[in-house]
Automatic annotation (TrEMBL):
Localization terms from the record: Cytoplasm
SMART domains recorded: Iso_dh
Domain of life: Bacteria
UniProt site positions, description: Important for catalysis: 141, 192
Name of the featured protein: 3-isopropylmalate dehydrogenase
Gene field: leuB
Residue ranges constituting the Isopropylmalate dehydrogenase-like domain according to the UniProt record: 4-353
Residues bound to Mg(2+): 224, 248, 252
Task performed by this protein: Catalyzes the oxidation of 3-carboxy-2-hydroxy-4-methylpentanoate (3-isopropylmalate) to 3-carboxy-4-methyl-2-oxopentanoate. The product decarboxylates to 4-methyl-2 oxopentanoate.
InterPro entries in alphabetical order: IsoCit/isopropylmalate_DH_CS (IPR019818), IsoPropMal-DH-like_dom (IPR024084), Isopropylmalate_DH (IPR004429)
SUPFAM superfamilies: Isocitrate/Isopropylmalate dehydrogenase-like
PROSITE patterns, per database record: IDH_IMDH
Catalytic activities: (2R,3S)-3-isopropylmalate + NAD(+) = 4-methyl-2-oxopentanoate + CO2 + NADH
Amino acid sequence: MSKKILILPGDGIGPEIVAEAVKVLACLRDDFGLAVETEEALVGGAAYDAEGHPLPEATLAAAQAADAVLLGAVGGPKWEPLDISVRPEKGLLGLRSGLGLFANLRPAILYPQLAAASALKPEVVAGLDILIVRELTGGIYFGRPRGVETLDSGERKGINTLVYTESEIERICRVAFDLAMKRGKRVCSVDKANVLECTELWREVATRVGADYPDVELSHMYVDNAAMQLVRAPKQFDVMVTTNMFGDILSDCAAMLTGSIGMLPSASLNADGQGMYEPIHGSAPDIAGKGLANPLATILSVAMMLRYSLNEPAQAERIEQAVAAVLDQGLRTADIAGEGMETVGTAQMGDAVVAALRLLRAEG
Ligand SMILES: NC(=O)C1=CN([C@@H]2O[C@H](COP(=O)(O)OP(=O)(O)OC[C@H]3O[C@@H](n4cnc5c(N)ncnc54)[C@H](O)[C@@H]3O)[C@@H](O)[C@H]2O)C=CC1
Ligand SMILES: CC(C)CC(=O)C(=O)O
Ligand SMILES: [Mg+2]
């Protein structure tokens, strides 16, 4: 039976990069027998404009009914004047919480072909392969109370709250330890336990969970130091596990070690293995509509979908091989091009990945 994939292009560069990922999916379906069918729906600013809400009920229902969701990005200056409760980003957060996608996996892998594009010296990043495991449905992005209140004095007060229960911390830590068992057997739990009680609890629970994984070496690091260490000596990390906001920030930082934020895919998983897949970047309003965006993070997100939700690891590997092949050919969007290198646009890059896939088939 065909697996159902819901496609949510979103805003800004979202539709441009998703179109390339859909070409790749279509190639796997037509040339490699992948049994998938796709359906498209609105989310984010596009949904707000059409229906007055960034996450229409029909979109959430379609996402819940799908085997997996592929999302581009949401948001942009057009919707910034809106109240936060109806901004495009709220649609994304609603999807994450509505689907229970508490585990966000953000691999930061340096393709050797892009060593020169990394923000760090080649000898510091060669072979880089970090997995950031970010808690995605709790923490300060969801905590209550929240909002802006007006005090008796007339001054306004902004409030957001960092909240985690023990069970929320435990389940994300277990995901991190289980994944570490299949990788380098090291987990670094990132917190701010020196000042935030909530993350003092995080550290305690991470330590308790770690006791169930005697083969995994657990370390703890404050988030400020972790940001610095990522830039100083990133290869000390294998799996990093952290809160929603810290993981959001650290993964953008890690992206630059791989050459560009346009290279980092992600998987957001719930307890049933259902997932949403998206690049870690946003809607990039500065380059939207220009055909300049790098579609590889979105294409690599399809590979993660095949691996984590559709149980098609061989198809996932094909995509990864095809991406490596186009990089070998020297194809570069502007964000990963070295000085003086020729660049290609979004659609050319997507077409090249499809051509590389077809070549793999021809080569048997
Ligand atoms: N998952 C999502 O839908 C996310 C949405 N956003 C939203 O996106 C909008 C823009 O946010 P920013 O802070 O500017 O972050 P951004 O990630 O959209 O862009 C940051 C910088 O990276 C570049 N960039 C991003 N993706 C790229 C790609 N595929 N290829 C080449 N360059 C790329 C952009 O051109 C920009 O210079 C905001 O409305 C924000 O709320 C931000 C992050 C994630
Ligand atoms: C709406 C934001 C929380 C999205 C974001 O920056 C992210 O998930 O990386
Ligand atoms: Mg982010």
